[in-house]
Amino acid sequence: MTHSVDRLKEIMVRLRDPNGGCPWDVEQTFATIAPYTIEEAYEVADAIERADMEELKIELGDLLFQVVFHARMAEEAGHFAFDDVAEAMADKLVRRHPHVFGEEAAKPSGSAQKARWEDIKAAERKAKAQHGVLDDVPVGLPALTRAAKLTRRAGRVGFDWPSTDEVFDKLAEEVEELRVEIAAGDKEKAREELGDLLFVVANLARKLEVEPEDALRAANAKFVRRFGFIEGELAKDGRTPEQSNLAEMDALWNAAKAAEKAQT
């Protein structure tokens, strides 16, 4: 394993070498590579969702390469190296698991242990002078994920609705406010209200202990699957969706939905 990682690091050094390396790799910066890092993380999640272990192995390698890439650029600039990244992660894991690596007793359940984890993280934020409850929720997260994290963090200090009933009331309120701005033709305010609506939806997901990004990915997959059914049925008559109409496609959508229910 050590040999494999060392080989990967050596390849990265060669790629970044201004004399004989890859021109594209040499030109990259943290900012230009960051989108690829995010993309690779999503491809890992996609392979997991499809339960494709061979693809997961490949995608995890791609993600590891992103870490090596960033670490190499940091080393070139004199900030830190790959080994420093690994060492910092190891230190953090030991620090945040005193019930495993220290003398603290483990909590009776996973949820209780997770709460203890959050307490440790809060102490770390305080030590780093991050006094705000929301200070270290990364801005670069997908918006729905960040919304859920923001509300989860606020909820830990008591700023939360007692139950999902109040969230549904707020959801209805935001829908009505969005309707008003749409009717008024104010696109900027409608955009703001749509954001508020999505934020409440993310909050509802958090209350239901559902990751909103996961839920939306599943909904996307379902839409693709059912629309594919529509295309397949129309193709039997030699037609495309453009040659159909909404009423027919809606009926086919319902047929796809019924077929899925029959299989469960």
Automatic annotation (TrEMBL):
Keyword Zinc: no
Superkingdom: Bacteria
Enzyme class name: hydrolase
A GO MF term: nucleoside triphosphate diphosphatase activity
EC identifiers of the protein: 3.6.1.9
Coiled coil (UniProt feature): none
Domain (NTP pyrophosphohydrolase MazG-like) ranges: 28-101, 169-226
Hydrolase listed as a keyword: yes
Signal peptide span: none
Keywords for this protein: Hydrolase
The protein's name: Nucleoside triphosphate pyrophosphohydrolase
Underlying gene: mazG
